[in-house]
## 1
Amino acid sequence: MRVLVVDDDETLRLIVRSALEERAYQIDEAEDGEQAVNMVATSGPYDAVLLDVNMPKMSGLDALAKIKELSPTTFCLIMTAYSNVQDAVAAIKQGAFDYLEKPIDSERLLKVMDSALAATAMVKELRFSAPQLEFDKGRKIIGSSTQIQKVFEIIHRLAKVETSVMVRGESGTGKELVARAIHVNSHRMKGPFVAINCAAIPENLIESELFGHEKGAFTGADRRKLGKFQFAEGGTIFLDEIGDISQQMQVKLLRVLQERIFTPVGSNQEIRADVRVVAATNAPLEKMIESGSFRADLFYRLNVMPITLPPLRDRREDIAPLADFMVQKFNKSHGRSIKGFENRSLAALRLYNWPGNIRELENVIEHAFIIENLDNIRLESLPDHLQGLVRASRQNSAEAESSVDGSSAPANDSLAGSLAASSELNYPQLKEKFEREFLIRALKAFNGRINQTAEHTQMTKVTLLRKLEKYGINPKQYHSQ
């Protein structure tokens, strides 16, 4: 447990440190509220911060507010004289976990810290147990983001009806998992689930694969074959990459959806199809309809209630719980006991844009399992391109910091240029210039999305919106950048 002790009285800090070190807590010290806020901002979040109320430069109550902005899950404890208990009450209203009266009693201190430790463990457990849709022998769709919660809601609705479904999303977003979730939550759950990748089957064989064929129907058909629609009788068929089938196959598939019958290749007998169809694609079907390569009537038959899966880069808050779930999965399959991620490696996962989405994340975690030989996955165990993101982020932060304090910076940096050209180094004005540029860069990095920008800059959403209003910044301008 990382603990920051903040008091301008060195003797009191020593007393508190001595008591806490009995529990092997990692202790840092700060002399005033301003130093404490800087340490929280630069050293990462602490599990707990003990704050005196009356301190120079910045009071404990002001520091409390700023620390809770930077790290909402940090437990703050206020230390105050008996005569100033009203300050402690005010602090608790502002988010403090508890208060301690001076002189500090070691027994009382340890009791309060034990409570904070238990609460910290609970917060971490909740953080890594994001809402999940569980199905099919423990397989799960994981996520607490607004986008994935909407997907959960649509899945539950579709499970109650028989309509055909179109699942759309980039490769690796989990379209087949969604199809399976719909199947096992429906009344067809006891029937078969048959998945077929339309893009992987040659055009001259796909009709036979889907509907079957009779013996002698074509060269090489030396026996009768049942099609996937017959195997899926009473259940669900999942047609992945539906945009890759030919116009001729689109007509035959439309007949199945409309009339619930099909005819095997080389047969004159119609077969009734008691099958639910779930299709998926990452192709731009609307443009294909305009060009005439995809039938509009088939599209509307499948697209009654579509599900659009967001790419992983648009649901970054789900990266940590997804990665944690994969760690548990690979611990079982590889016989390991890795606990989680170091801060730098988790930061790399959050910074990366994941063009391969969840499938790529899974591959990266398995790669790390092969390389890592310690209890936590380090940055060095991740692929080189993810390691480079953290290094680049640190370099950018160093350049921005050097621009603010007047150190050397790149000549083309606009803030550095304003510093060099300024005849009068006005810190408040330069600070505002830096803050405005920082906000714009952050919005560009996260395509103008408020929730993601707030999370990754460690601001509260309220604070971010207030600053955007202050500087007249419209986040919508950065949606496409």
Note: The longest helix spans residues 106-127.
## 2
Amino acid sequence: MKTRQLGKNGVEVSAISIGTRWGIDSLKEWNQSRKQISQTLNQAIDEGINFINTADFYGVGVSEMAIGEIIKERRDDVFLSVKSGALINHNGHFLGLDGRPNAIKNFCAYSLKRLGVDVIDLYQPARVDPEVPIEETVGAIKDLIDEGKVRYLGLSEANAENLRRANTVHQVSALEIEYSLATRFIENEILPVARQLGVAIVPYSAFYYGLLTGKMHFPLDKNDYKNMFPRFQGENLEYNLQKVAWLKEFAASKGVTASQVSLAWLLNQGEDIIPIVGMSKPERIKDNLAALEITFSDEELQALNEAFKEGALKGTRYPEAFLAWAAS
């Protein structure tokens, strides 16, 4: 397994992180999916994927309980990353953020118990709570590091200013943020600042909600949650699928899939890029690992960058109401 260093103060981890947002929202669903998910995670670890990404709100804690059960006998084989601070009810509805120091420490205590471990390797707020100074939230995680309950500090969906401010309190090892061929906004300011500070980038949504897999069709099912995103609506989706058709042809010319090209492009953006890839089926592991072996000529990278430059897709990342809230 190829490895990459998690920030200038971090350890070597697998070049790909496995995402664990498996869609198991209850113990009943976990019991139904236990065999498949256990096989997938164990096989991923066997293949050398040791970087496990989760959150205390995935399945309202069920994801952590599942991981804890699976890694019980192989804790030393994995690097655990946990997000916290997002408030989710039992129906999966978002209620807000809580980055207060006491809340962060409380969330961590429950995560340690559900995971069945003594220490979490990378701990991070899921988003910056606009009601709490980032220094206070990060200060709480620094306390957890000093107490031996957390090893490294991470951030998620933080802008360049918050990244700088957090780093004055404690070295930030990693920034989890959306980044893909379809979403390149971090290249303007966030990525340069992260590199200046020695912070690794851990991209999520490497396939942009499935768009870059080349398997999406127009129109989406009316019950598909992606209908809420402007890029997946009406003419926007029709236009964006034309871009993906080009990507599929590009991939076919190299004898690989659109998904593999998308992941390989991310991996080629720098040794400080460690993408998260959701995998709930064993067969997905080898497909994703194959992307580690894909190389591009300068001409191929130029073609990909031109076809998917910032603004190449129609529609905003999120609905306007969400963008206004995130900017507040």
Note: Residues 3-327 form a domain with the TIM Barrel fold (CATH 3.20.20.100).
## 3
Amino acid sequence: MGNIFINNKYFISLKLKMTKNKIFLSDDTLEKALHLLNSGKLVALPTETVYGLAADACSDKAVASVFALKERPAFNPLIAHFYSPEQIKEYTEITPLAETLLKNFAPGPLTLVLNRKRTAPLSDLVTAGLDTLAVRIPNHPIAQYLLEKFGRPLAAPSANPSETLSPTQASHVKIAFKNSKNRPFIIDGGPCQQGLESTILDARGDTPILLRPGGLALEEIERLTGISVKLDPQDSKIRSPGQLKRHYAPKTPLKLNVKVPSTDVAYLAFGPTTSCTDEACLQLSATKDLEEAAANLFSMLRKLDSFNKKVICVAPIPEFGLGLAINDRLKRASYTKY
């Protein structure tokens, strides 16, 4: 077949390579992925945020396989990934607010919750019985290529068991499902650029409501659109993916807002410190760069988890910009029921 040309910028060839502007992958890999998706099978694919566990969003059987493999609660809805705003309009009642947000931030790390069209040929499992649908257009050439060629939306939550750390590399997916009989086909697209899940907004009305902070900062949304974002009322209702109290968690317990850790713990630092004296200390960002910290968060928590310490202590993270999303993940990861 030769190499596949993606979006006039991205080539695909036999061996994966990463350059500043190009991603190389075999065309056979993509053709196999498309065949599996059309057959109702699961494919782990890269996005700019985290690796997603993709399935045909219009197939009950395929979506059920996602819930089974992840051991995900059936009441927790999934995000449907699309290729274009026009495709989203086929499945949802799009609002003027949603059109503005899509115009400014799609493709990108933004998910919108909209009213689902009753005629949309979508599996009810994707919405967990709700009348709404969470939609996103990922900003990654491999995901965009597959979505365009597949022609239907893909349900694609993070490619990891429920409540565990999200995968930002293909190797994380492989390890997460190594003992599973129904292991997904994995496309290695290199490390995820952002490493933090998408921001989720309820865009059904005139004012966006934040349901989950993520890779798109609220300040950026308000700066570019002039629209103020309201915070979710924080009641017990699940309105979108990513709202479970415990989520994104390592096996080792977390202790947050620790400025000076003791010597017998693992430590996730942020900013200049003299506390990092051994290998069980990792630096999210020595310069307090929140974008760098977001990209490093899950991979560093995963590495610290491997040291099998009694606790992972985490330095204070500021509550602005991407810090809001980082703290959201840390709080959910540290939540205990008792």
Note: The first strand starts at residue 4 and ends at 6.
